[in-house]
Specification:
It is built from 9 helices and 16 strands. The protein has 266 residues and is of the alpha/beta class. The strands form 5 sheets. Strands 1, 4, 7, 8, 10, 13, 14 and 15 form an 8-stranded mixed sheet that branches. A two-stranded antiparallel ribbon has the order 2-3. The protein is globular and about 65 Å long.
Length: 266
């Protein structure tokens, strides 16, 4: 199953670092948060990534173009103009990097990678959030209800799109936040059927507005509730909190170092 990652925004709320690089390339533990997200999905057997780029896209492209240099021992023979890679430790990933436009909105970015997805169910997430959500259980939940879209609902402050859900998981309403909202919000980590492209008009479409709102009205949007860890790197303070978790060995999303972590393929 392909994983689409939205990584093209300007990241203005963490401008201390995003003026130099896209927000998904800001590092946690000496690796971009984008790498952390990909490592997490890979533990569930999801290694085919489509990354939607925009702002400073060349930084992401250069990172993956030289990825083996970041992860392997290398000998450069300058006299012979030759490079030898030792003990290649790169992951078995397939990474498609797509320029989805500098000012394209989230829905427009998804629409622009339609040809790379084809007529398949796909995973969708943002390039600035980590979690310990069970991807296998999420996909099983999605397959079980048969609707067009599933988003992961997390219990956190009212900063993101708000869900009104029925006891069976059906979403009755999706809308942007207001001061009277409850705690279940859209945490990303979504599963989509290709029919979702019919809800997106073009580059100016904000996915979190009309598409999700109309999916909810049509009864085609479901929520998978996650009560575990979830954190979005929205500000420098968020980045430092994630960095502390990583440095102290308490990062809940770092499942690839745990015994028995593999074998959860979907």
């Amino acid at each position: 199953m392909k994983v689409v990652i939205l990584a093209g925004g300007f990241g203005t709320r963490i401008s201390e670092e995003s003026h130099l690089k896209p927000k998904p390339m800001i590092e946690i533990g000496e690796q971009p948060i984008l790498w952390h997200i990909m490592k997490y999905y890979a533990e569930f057997g999801c290694c085919d990534f489509i990354i939607c780029l925009g702002y400073k896209q060349y930084v992401v492209k250069e990172y993956f173009a030289d990825y083996f240099l970041h992860t392997s021992d290398v000998t450069f023979d300058l006299a012979k103009n030759r490079m030898e890679v030792h003990a290649n430790k790169t992951e078995p990933w397939r990474v498609t990097l797509v320029d989805t436009g500098l000012n394209t909105m989230t829905g427009g970015r998804i629409k622009r990678v339609q040809d790379y997805i084809g007529d398949e169910t796909f995973l969708l997430t943002y390039g600035d959030g980590v979690s310990d959500v069970d991807i296998k259980a999420l996909v099983e939940f999605h397959r079980g209800h048969g609707r067009t879209a599933t988003i992961t609902g997390v219990n956190i402050g009212q900063r993101f799109g708000v869900l009104k859900a029925a006891p069976d998981g059906s979403i009755r309403e999706f809308r942007e936040k207001n001061d009277d909202d409850g705690k279940i919000v859209n945490g990303g980590f979504m599963v989509m059927e290709p029919h979702v492209f019919d809800y997106i008009n073009g580059d100016g479409t904000v996915f979190e507005k009309e598409p999700l709102e109309n999916l909810a009205k049509d009864g085609e949007l479901m929520v998978y509730r996650h009560d575990g860890f979830w954190k979005c790197m929205d500000t420098q303070r968020d980045r430092m909190q994630l960095e502390d978790l990583w440095r102290e060995g308490r990062a809940p999303w770092r499942i690839w170092d745990r015994a028995g972590a593999r074998g959860k393929g979907i």
